[in-house]
Amino acid sequence: MNVTGQVFEDMQAQNIRLMQQLWEKDDANFKLMSERIQSDQFHKLLKEEKEEMAEQVLTLKTQVDAKLQVVRKLEEKEHLFQSNIGTGEKELSLRIQALEMNKRKTMEATQFADKKLHDFRDEIEENSVTKEKDMFNFKLNISRSLDISRLQRNLEMTKKPDNVPKRDEILMEEIEDCKACLTCPCCNVCKKDVVLTECFHVFCFDCVKTCYDTHQSKCPKCNAAFDASGFHRIYIG
Ligand SMILES: [Zn+2]
Ligand SMILES: [Zn+2]
């Protein structure tokens, strides 16, 4: 009986121990279950994050592709610009050459025109001298012919003795005429001693100088304009 009691007690103690172990196992199982649930949730979260990241990666990849395309287009534009610059530089050098050539031609034309102008001036000067000489000769001829006709008249008068007083009168008139011819028609006082080379009218130096100084610079007889080199001194008698 004692043995049975002892066994029963052992069994009881073993049962209690086993029950305790069972509870412990249950606790451990419960802990494992809750850990599993937590890890599932964590896994789900990680999966969602991964999907999101993949989506972001895809978006970034699309953006990178778009940027690369833009870069390619910019490179093409750069090539185009470089070729345009090359063409522009060539055109510029051609234009510079053309400009230089035009400049050279213009300079040659200017030199030629200068030479022509110089020749033309020389010719005008020569013509003016010839004209002056011709005019002088013409005036000389007229004065000679006037002298001749006057002498002829005098000769006729001297042939007639009755005409002596009249002849004196005529001679006086002629002397007056000659004086008038030698006197400046402007002031009627001074002797003629300056000729205007443009119109060949003759005056005294003071009258011509007064005209020039008062900036009129025009012949008092015919209004022909003259400048500082447009009159010369002459010496009569
Ligand atoms: Zn005068
Ligand atoms: Zn004049």
Automatic annotation (TrEMBL):
Task: Please tell me which top-level EC class this enzyme sits in.
Answer: transferase
Where does this one sit in the cell? Nucleus
On the tree of life, the source organism's domain of life is Eukaryota
Q: Which reaction does it catalyse?
A: S-ubiquitinyl-[E2 ubiquitin-conjugating enzyme]-L-cysteine + [acceptor protein]-L-lysine = [E2 ubiquitin-conjugating enzyme]-L-cysteine + N(6)-ubiquitinyl-[acceptor protein]-L-lysine
Pathway(s) it belongs to: Protein modification; protein ubiquitination
User: For this protein, what is the EC number?
Assistant: 2.3.2.27
* Classification via SMART domains: RING
Q: Name one GO molecular function term.
A: ubiquitin protein ligase activity
Recite the UniProt keywords alphabetically: Chromatin regulator, Coiled coil, Metal-binding, Nucleus, Transferase, Ubl conjugation pathway, Zinc, Zinc-finger
**Keyword Ribonucleoprotein recorded:** no
The main location class comes to nucleus
InterPro entries tied to this protein: E3_ubiquit_lig_Bre1 (IPR013956), Znf_RING (IPR001841), Znf_RING/FYVE/PHD (IPR013083), Znf_RING_CS (IPR017907)
GO-annotated cellular components = HULC complex; nucleus
Q: Which residues form the RING-type domain?
A: 184-223
Q: Name one GO biological process term.
A: protein ubiquitination
Oligomer status and interactors:
Component of the RNF20/40 complex (also known as BRE1 complex) probably composed of 2 copies of RNF20/BRE1A and 2 copies of RNF40/BRE1B. Interacts with UBE2E1/UBCH6.
Family label = Belongs to the BRE1 family.
- Can you name this protein? E3 ubiquitin protein ligase
